[in-house]
Structures are given as C-alpha cells and as structure tokens.
Amino acid sequence: MGNLLLTNIKSLAGILESGQTKLAGKEMSNLASIQNAWLKIVDGKIEDYGTMDSLAFGSNQTIETIDCSGRFVLPCYVDSHTHIVFAKTREEEFVMRIKGKSYEEIAEAGGGILNSAARLHQMSEDDLFEAAKTRLNEVINYGTGAIEIKSGYGLSVEDELKMLRVIKRLKVIAPIPIKSTFLGAHAFPKEYKQNRPGYIQLIIEKMLPIIAQENLADYMDVFCDQGFFTTEETDVLLEAAAKFGLKPKIHGNELGFTGGVQTAVKNNAISVDHLEYTGDAEIESLLNSETMPVALPGCSFFLGIPYAPFRKMIDAGLAVCLASDYNPGSTPNGRMGFVVALACSQMKLTPEEAINACTINGAFSLELSNEVGSITKGKLGNIIITKPMESLAIIPYHFGVDQVEKTILNGEVFLGI
Ligand code: NIG
Ligand code: FE
Fold first, then answer.
1. Who is most buried in 87, 188, 230, 264, counting CB within 10 A?
2. What Cα–Cα distance (Å) separates residue 168 from each residue in 133, 153, 209, 244, 382?
3. 307-338: per-residue pLDDT in tens?
C-alpha cells in the first residue's frame, strides 16, 4: 500500500462523488475533470485532490511525488469480461475464417471452445497459472486495474475446477481486484452432444456444490445463444446457481435474437454481455432492469460480426459498459485502449462515454463501484498516468497505439507481478 502525490496533472479526469455506482444515458457524456491538478494517495487509497493552487507545499516533503506535466490522470480501466485462463492460441481457426468458414461452422466441427477445452485438459494447473499471470501482467500494463476472469474451457468437473483454482491463485497474488465467474455452461462437451440434460445435471450436481464449498466463484455465466444453451436450459442453470449463492452474468445475443437479454433480465443478472443482436424489444427489457449491458467490440472486430448498438442504447437512457472479452477464439486482445478506440470509431460513442463505459460502469458490472472505477476519495489508488497528450480524444484517435505511460496500483507504480 503506497503513498504517492501526483502534481501538475494536465487533466485529472473521471471524478465522481462517492456513492455514484454507474452513469446512464446523457450522464455518460460527462467525464468530470479538473485541470492543472494534484492527487494524493495515502495507504493505497485516494485521499484527496484539487487544483495546483490549492496544494499546500512543505507538508508533502516526505511523500514520493510524480510530476505529471502534460499528462492526463484517469481511473484504471475495469475489464468486466475476460477469459484469460487458457492453454493455447487458436490462430489456425482465424486463418480458416479468413478462408470463409464461420465461427459457428468451426465450433460445430469440434473447433472453437471444444478445441480450447481439449488443449486445456493437457495443461497442468501450474502452467495454466503462469500463462494467465503473464496475460494479467500484460493487461495491467495497458491500464486495467480490476478484472473479471471466467472458467469455461474445462467442461468437465476436473478441468472446470482446475481453471477456477487458477483464478483463485491469481486473486491471491494480483495487486488488483479480481472477480471469478464459473462458465461451465460455455458449450456442450462432445460426449454430451446427444445428452444435453446429462451435462446440465453434471454442472448442477457435481460442479456447483464443490465450487460453492471451496468458494471458487463469484458469478455464474451461461452462453445463452444459438447453437449453445437455450433460454430454458439457462433458466434451470441459473436457478440452481442461485441456491449456491452465485449471481448471474450472461453471454447473450452474440449470434442472433435468441432471448438472452430477456433471460438475463428475468433472472436479475448483474450483466448481459455481447449484444451484437439487440433490437427494440431487448432495449425495452433492459430499461426496466438493473442488468448492465456489456459490449465487447474487440469480438465484433475480430469475428466481423455487428457491433452492439450502443449509440441507440445510450440515447434511450441506458447505462452501458465495455469490456475486452480477452480469449483465444473471438478476441485475442485485452487492451482496453483499443476497446475505447473501437467504441468511438465503430459504435459512435464519444471518448468521454467510452471511458465511463470502461471505468465506472465496468465497476458496476463487477459490484466494485465502491472500490474502483473513478477518482473518488476513499477508492483504491488504481490510476493511469498517460503519455503527454493534447486531449482525451488522442486515446481513440491513435487506435492501436497505447497512451498508458504508468499504471499505479494501490498508490504504487506497477512494475510487474
Ligand atoms: O465471449 N461467445 C462465447 N465465448 C467467448 C469465446 C469463446 C471462444 O471462442 O473461445 C466469447 O466470445
Ligand atoms: Fe466472453
């Protein structure tokens, strides 16, 4: 837990009053900021901030100080949807898609998630842990200061537990908050293709009790979509998970208008993620709920599928969230700066809306709004110092070029785990 003073900040942005858990509709266009500012972190938490003329010199001599002239200071990104525990990359499927096969055709032929599951089965827990730790290091360096990680490449009792134990170990060593999501219902393993109820029973009777007993997950996720789990199967799984204290998060409406959003709302899901196929009925359903819609534009970019209609959704008054979806199949990239760039250039969000979607609304999606997601007194000192930048729009404008100069976690410059 560090003590740190940042001075001469060109713009300290993302300031919120404490108690504000998310921003919706028009509120999202305001990324409150002060110019020529200082920020003080004490014992790892944001203690105070103000304009440079209000900084009392002399009393700060013992505190480590970073001069942030020309730089923006922002809250760290909160990446509320990732699959960073995986065995191997899947670039051969990427090449198959270039040559004309669709993501669903590859999955149908035993590639996709089942391919990742076969490879994960071969890998030891320790090797998986090391690989995931490397990815975690990478994304923290790109500004992620809180993250969610899913299982879902196990699809057997043994391998789902292996994944969740890796996430639990990451929670212990990571300097950032991590939430763990059980995604055993990611796909039907080959041996259960003709016996879907059998796999659902395995999840409910064999996986969930151990997960609850060993406290291995915070949330339960289901891939509720065309070719994967039906809305009825999703209901059954979520009802069982609730008995074990796991709240829902849903993968929905990625491949079609399949009722994923309505199922998420009906089950009071914390979030419903993907949303490439979202129409008026889905928007109406979300407006009458507390469920956070999460878009994953890196997935749309990589698979060449539609982008979630976030412009329309914000204009309808919704709070919306953006996350990376970092995984080997649909989004082999965890850079939140690139997510911001895609949200602005492809989904027509303003830079301010995109950053709010990646910070405070990401925190809401992980029930971490009291700890991270904004510059607020008492929150963790998890912040980004940018490279020298003229304006905030430089982040999405220079797409693919990262503007993060330093990630500060708990008031300490991040040097790696
Ligand atoms: O969120 N859509 C479902 N699951 C992952 C991708 C899984 C994979 O292809 O490995 C996603 O995109
Ligand atoms: Fe995903």
1. 264
2. 12, 16, 17, 18, 21
3. 999 999 999 999 999 999 999 999 999 999 99
- Distance (angstroms) between ligand 2 centre and the Cα of 325 equals 5
pLDDT in tens, 262-321: 999 999 999 999 999 999 999 999 999 999 999 999 999 999 999 999 999 999 999 999
Domain(s) labelled CATH 3.20.20.140 in the chain stretch across 78-365
Ligand 1 atom closest to 299 (CA): 12
Q: Which two tokens stand for residue 402?
A: 């990262």
Q: Burial level of 400, CB count in 10 A (0-12/13-18/19+)?
A: exposed
Burial of 246 (0-12, 13-18, 19+ CB in 10 A): buried
> What is the number of helices (H) and of strands (E) in the chain?
16, 16
* Class in CATH terms, 78-365: alpha beta
**Ligand 1 atom at minimal distance to the Cα of residue 325:** 1
Is the shortest distance between the CB of 189 and ligand 1 below 6 Å? Answer: no
Measure the CA–CA gap between 66 and 328, rounded to whole angstroms. Answer: 37
Q: How far is the CA of 112 from the centre of ligand 2 (A)?
A: 12
Nearest-angstrom CA–CA distance, 74 and 410 = 14
Ligand number nearest to the C-alpha of 228: 1
Q: Is it the case that residue 36 has pLDDT exceeding 70?
A: yes
pLDDT at 125: 98
What is the model's pTM? 0.98
Helix (H, G, I), strand (E, B) or coil at 88: coil
Mean pLDDT of 22-26: 98
- Which segments of the chain belong to CATH 2.30.40.10? 4-75+375-413
> What is the phi/psi pair of residue 412, to 5°?
-125, 140
Residue nearest to atom 5 of ligand 1 (CA): 330
CATH, range 4-75+375-413: 2.30.40.10
| 50 strand-pairing partners | 38
User: 197-235, pLDDT tens digit by residue?
Assistant: 999 999 999 999 999 999 999 999 999 999 999 999 999
Ligand (nearest to CA of 94): 1
Mutate to test the pocket of ligand 1, among 103, 120, 327, 331 (most ligand atoms within 8 A of CB): 327
